[in-house]
Structure formats: C-alpha cells, structure tokens
Amino acid sequence: MPGPHPAVPSPALALPGWCPLSPAGAQTLQLLVDPPWRPAVLWDEVTLTCQGSATAGATTWYKDRWHWGPRGHNRVTVTESGTYRCARPGSGHSPPVTVSDDWLVLQVPARALLEGDTVTLRCRGWRDNKVTGVSFYHEGQELGLLPDGTELSLSPLELHHSGRYRCKGRLGWWEWKESAPVTVTVQVPVANATITPAPPAHQVCPGDPVTLRCSVQVGSAPVTFTWLHNGQEVARGPLLELGNVSVAHSGTYQCVATNQLGQDEHRALSPELALTVTPDSPWLTAVAVNVGRTLLFLLLLLAVVMGCHWWHQRRGCQEAPGQSRQPGERWPRQPVTASPHGWGQRDGREGAQTLQILVDPPWRPAVLWDEVTLTCQGSATAGATTWYKDRWHWGPRGHNRVTVTESGTYRCARPGSGHSPPVTVSDDWLVLQVPARALLEGDTVTLRCRGWRDNKVTGVSFYHEGQELGLLPDGTELSLSPLELHHSGRYRCKGRLGWWEWKESAPVTVTVQELFPVPVLEGAPEPTEGSPLNLSCLSTPSPLRPRAPLLHVFYRDGQRVGGPQGSPQLLVPAVGVSHSGNYSCEVRSEGGAVRKSSARLRVTVRMPVANATITPAPPAHQVCPGDPVTLRCSVQVGSAPVTFTWLHNGQEVARGPLLELGNVRVAHSGTYQCVATNQLGQDEHRALSPELALTVTPDSPWLTAVAVNVGRTLLFLLLLLAVVMGCHWWHQRRGCQEAPGQLPTTGVTLRAPTGVPQPCPTSGSTSDQRGAVGTLRVTAGPP
Q: pTM of the full predicted structure?
C-alpha cells in the first residue's frame, strides 16, 4: 500500500492526495457495501464497490481523507477501520462509508429506508462476542430492554421513526459498552404530482401571462421536476413560465416529479392539463361589440319599465286591511327551494325564510293516528299566521297552533316572513319515520318502521339507496350510531302487517350535516431560528350546534406534540432546527366519534448564516507569480439561498462562493474576506469570514542579474573547452610519434615539400625511414 500523501486543506485547489469535503455538482457515485449493513464491521471481511458514472478504471480511493489503495481498482477489500470514499474525474466523490472496529456496534441495513418498510437494527459485539442486557435508544429515549435479544424491528416504518439510534449492552463478563449513534432516515417516494392552476381544462387568450406550478403531495427531497408539452420534454424545474402565450402554446401539459432513494429512482406523473389558447377573431370581436350594445339598450329599457311599474304601485290602492283569500281558494304556486339547514327560499324573492313548523310528536313524516300538533314558529306577528294544506288555504286564519285531523302536506305563512318548509302527515299502511331534527355527524339516530294505527309489523327489512341493510324478524327499528356523512340518502322499509300482504313504506330522506368542516392548519411556513411559532387549527362548529365542544391535537412528522386541548392554537416560544417537519392537526368531537385531520403544513426553520470561512488555509498563504489560486467561501450554518461577496483589502471584487484569481500577480497580494448573506423574511443576516493573507513573492532584479551572468560564464567555459579539445585533437593528428630506439637530435630542422602532407612513419618500416631521410636536408650546427 502506498504511503499517505499530506492532507491539503484546500478543496478548491484540488491538489493530489486531497479528498474534497464538498465536491461541486451533484454526486453520481456511491459505495456499495458487502455485507449490506452500515456501519460495516471489520471482522465481516467488507468489500466496497465504487458504482456510478465515468470510467471505472480512473477510480481513486480515500481513507480518512488520505489517498489510499491502488488507483484504478473498482472494488477493494477493507483491512482497516476508518471512513472510505471513492472518486472519479467529472463525477465528484461518493458519500462516505464507515468501517468500524468498536467493542459494540449498532447496524442498520445499507439501503434506502422507505415509509412502510420493515427494518431490523442489530446490536453486535466485537468479533461477534455475545452481548447481553441490550437496550435500544431513540433520540436519547430508551425503547426497551431485551435480556436475550440483540435486534430491534421497526415495522411498518413511519416518518417519526427517523432519528439517531444507539444500543447499550454487556460483553461477556466485561463492563457495559455503548455503541456510536446511527442515523435512520425514513424516506418517502414522490406521489400525487399535480399542476396548478386547475381545472384540467384551462382556456386563455393570446398575450395572457401563464405560469404553471408542479408540486407533489409527498416525497423526500431532493425532488426534480420535468415538464412535458404534448409528450415532449420542454423544461425543468417546479415552475413553467410560458410568458405571454400564443396559439403554439396550446396542448396538453404534464410534469414528472422524480426523487432518487438509494439505488431506486421514483417518479410521479401528474394528470394532463389541457391549455387552449383561443385565437382572436375579428368577426367575434364585432359580434361581441354588437351584443354589448344590444344588452345595454335592453338594460336601459328594463330600467324604464321597472320605474314605471314602481310608480304605478306607489299610485295604486292596496288591498283593504282584513281582506284575505276565502277557504277553498288555492294558494298560488310558488316553488320553494330547501336549504341544507331546513329553511326555504321562495323564488329567491323573499330572502331567507324565518318560519318553521314544529311537530309534536317530533317525527317525520308525522302519522295521523298520533294526534299531531303543528306549531308555526318564527318572526313576524303570530296573529297573522295563515295555514295551507296541499297548497290550498286551510283552517282558521291567525292561529299559531293547529291539530291535524287529515293527512297531507302542511305549511304556514306570515306577512314579510314567507312560507315555512312543508311538513307531511301520513296515513299509509306502512310508514318509516326519522326524528324531526337536524342530524349531525356523531349523533345517534333511530329509524322506526310503523304499521297503520300501530298494527304489528313482522319480517321488517330496511333499505338504503335500494340496498338491503338486513332483516329484523321481530324488530322494527334501525339504529345508526355514530352518524357519518355516508349515512345520508333515501331510506325505506318493508314488512308484513298481521296476516295481510307485504307492504312497503314511502322513501324518507336522511341528510347528515357536518358537525365541523375539515380543519385548516395555518402558520408561518419558514420561521427564523429563535422566533416564536404559532400554529392555528381552524375549524368552526356547525351553526346547527354552535356550542359543540371540540378538541384539537397537533402532530409533527406523525408524533403528537400538543393536545388534546380545547384551544386551537399551538405556540412554540422559540423554534430551533429540531422543530422543522410536517405538521398537521386533528379536530375531534368531545366523545371522539368524529375526527378530521388537516392537510400537512411543511415548516422549515430557517437559520441565519454563521461562521463563514475561506479555504485554503492556513491564514497566511504564500504563492509565486503565475501560480493558479482559487478561494472558496462556505458557512457552517445558514438556510439557502446564501449569497457570497468577496473583499480584497476591504473593497468588493467579486460575488459567488468561488473566487478564481487565475495566474496570480504581485497585485493580487493582500487580505481577502468573504461576506455570506441570507434573507430571512424582512431581515438580512450577514457573516464575515476571518482575513486570509495572500502574499505573492515578486521576482528579484539582483537574482535575475546573477542568473544571467552565471549563464554567460557557463557558456564561455563551454566554448573554451570546445576550443581546447579541438586543438588537442589537431595536434594529435599533425604530430609524429617518436621511433623506438631513436636518439634525440639537437638542432635538426625538418622541412617537408611545401603543400604536400607527410604521414608520420611507423617504427616498424626501415625503408620508409630511409626514404624520408633521403628527402630531408640536415644542417648540422658547429661542433
């Protein structure tokens, strides 16, 4: 294994041997662990496989932030504990994988944990030594003691199971040990993608600004969105801004929401949104103008007619007081529309009805043999009450209460108050009765099937919307408890009267009203850390039962955090990061028979930026001219979006998380700082980094002169050496070696013929020596 390279604290410089903490771009690499547990344990013979994009042969491994292992291997076997990563050019670095060699280790399956899964956490002793008295903890809370067990099963997984787990146990007869914490994150695949605005058919005109938003009901972040127009991809992101639309924008739109959970990619396709851009038509414009003018003329004409009618009404004589319709005179037909609360409105001209008929006994339909009494109750003068039976004037005028002696449909009326809803009095062979009161969710209601004049009824069956609910051989009553909205509908009963034939009742409509609507949870979705959070669970009791007591319960990520309580408010005095999550509320009736939950409200506690730092370090950094330098600014905490501003000697020079100086010069020397900023609501928060001193060492003229002179001297010496070597070689070629045994001669001059080169004679050629002597002139000096 090669020796480790020194760790360099500057991921921006990307020097050899450095494993950056935050590689740029989304990570596309991951480490597969075999066996698939995290943290892995050394005694399991762990194999790591680097999987992802880019060339597998270019894989680089890091252990504890140091270069480790042979380069280019896609799979390695671990022999030491530590934290491992792999990297490939252009793909960044994988998430870290920890291999532990601790005394006690808590392991979780090394895969994406999805809502609804079953997951087992196991507590293991070093080299699988036996562990006893194991306890498991979740966020510091003990989950239970397992005297002989070492595994904890979570099934089915829910969002509230997320958090930090650890285990504690005894290894053999040794002391108690505690594992390092392990984080369990329960993730949710994307589901129920929707596009707003709705409805699905959306018609606009050319030039209208249109923006579509894609959202999902559930899905763990990060979620990416892709937009399709007529099945073709056109854009990415949660918003599709079409701007001022034209006819070409017509068609169907869909969005695809995607999130990556472990090895699996999950997608959700929204329903189609049909967008129709209606082109302008000159003919339609002309028609619209003419129609508008015609309508204006008709409105003016109608105003004149109504004015004349009002004038004649003012001038005409009203019917003399006391004049009334005679018995037998038919009440003019005036259609009545019933409201959900049992009140009616006549032709929309009388406003809300304020009259109603109280029935005694309080059942509907009433039956004639019960001696039914009707009481007209409401506003206006009681003495002016008029009664109608089957739409005809009936009974004496001015009586507020009447006793019914005939079957039929009854109403009462008073001047200025309209007419009451109808009340039916039956005299049928078989009658199904319902309590004559408002029926709300959670109530108990009894339907009773009665024979004419209370003759015995046997073999009774009840029906709801044509479906038989059951046969009651000896019973005549059907109880619905607690009432729910789906109990609304048309009911009837069937039975046998004595020895006579089977009879069937007329249908009766049961309308179950809401006790309270589905609650709406309201509150600040992005509070700032340290600020109060006030959540309101809004739901109002029905006007039919305005004093119904309601209880409110608040949840965060499925865990109850408030209630049951009468107050619809949940107040957190000072929020922290742990208060982020999906909140919901539930409203219950006092007995709990009716429960309704709100939609989830995502609350994200936003953090002001803090602890801005510049890398590389140390604070004093010395470089030479021409060196490439890149500085990176980061913050320890701070909610996105975070903006960065760079200062050089106190002056702003750039913006963004990276400051790329390129090939530096002396002018780049000085102090550098970065300012990190994020906007939380109306407040802007800033964090200033410590100063980074950058020194660019300039070139020295004296050193340059010395280098030039040394170069020149070396060149001269090389040339001189070449000349000496040349001369030496020349003399070797021109000189004659001395003959063996030849004595030196003093004062001898050797002259060769001019222009003729003479070779040096060898010692072994006597004839040549003689010949040479023959051609020489020897001049002897004086004796």
A: 0.42
